[in-house]
Amino acid sequence: MARVLTPRAEDFPRWYQDLIAKAKLADNGPVRGTMVIRPAGYAIWERMQSEMDDRIKAAGAENAYFPLFIPESYLKREAEHVEGFSPELAVVTHGGGKQLAEPVVVRPTSETVIGEFMAKWIDSYRDLPLLLNQWANVVRWELRPRIFLRTSEFLWQEGHTAHATRADARAYARRILHEAYEDLMVNVLGIPVVVGLKTARERFAGATATYTCEGMMGDGKALQLGTSHELGQNFARAFDISYSSAEGGREHAWTTSWGTSTRMLGGLIMCHGDDNGLRVPPRLAPIQAYVMVVKDGEGVGAAAAELRDALRDAGVRVALDDRTDTPFGRRAVDAELRGYPVRVEVGPRDLATGNAVVVRRTDGSKAPTPVADVVGAVRAALEADQRALHDQALAHRQSRTVEVATLDEAIEAAATGWARVPWSAVGVDGEAKANGQGVTVRCLLRADGSVPDTEDESDLVAILARAY
Question: What does the pLDDT look like over 93-105, one tens digit per residue?
Fold first, then answer.
């Protein structure tokens, strides 16, 4: 396999690019910073999307769709918001062969346009909470693109809600953070995320609080996998999102926004991938079991098709590879690269003894298994390997995280992993110093690991790391 992928220990960024190309997950688009997501990559994104959509709907939000083009004037209404996004904006000045009366922005995020319609749709406290989500593409002009991690156009979901009180808004932002984002990342993607509060310096432009899910990648760097924001009344005032209260007064709503994107695909690759390719957690995998005909003849093809059908009937997502005109070794390498959790190899020699070979991608083990027991063996392997991938990632994070007492120690530790340091030893000035050396405060935690309300709480712990 070393001939297929650059070893991770030798050159992690090159390994990442090799894997994306060789596993046929994505390609660079024709415009710098854009990407083409190939069917193998998009199938994983569809599974992420489906799992996330179920969780968002369980939290009460409904899907809608808002325009790709946003009047430039909308962004200017919330000064901090436009200032934060200004360097990344793509602006359209001409359409239909004519100069536009007002330039339009290709959406970088939709707080402003959704705020405009929230103001239109909300009149009374009876209209609250208004819980919206959209699946869309967004454009943020990226100077240093990297497929899935930072691209000028990417796919995501963005939720936007309006509430009657600050407490309701905070509770909902945190509900999404834990019940949708953390739950998906830990229990489906198998990525053990640290959930915390962003500092004011790292906060979303226009927000009053930003909560984040941070994962450690295979090289010890951090990746922000999803964020949920309290927007206070900033956008409500800018767009007059107001309502008549039960007492008869007129009040501004409290709003939130939250999003995850195709960046999760990059996180999946870098968290679980190895020198043989991608390893997809079974609960996420579009193909959980890959039945392969080693060599045709002697009833092998029929036996493989029967195993496929039995696995499908047992609720396993399964595919059959009977392309015997392609060498088996090449097909096996491709299956390793794609990260199919389990392969079931059916050949004449094993079938003659009543067996098939069950191969587990997570540990590479191969077990001759009676054909009648294959379904049970596959289901047991899928459940065990879901846990194994999470536990391996957690052990990796713990081994690369150190407790330190000073900012300088934290910056030094961030060269190889994460540092936990008292926030009081860092502070605003220390954060600026760390940023100057390529290290960021990923999030703040309470001593017990819970998420703080503000960075002014006492005895907070800061997580410092280099990040993508």
Answer: 999 999 999 999 9
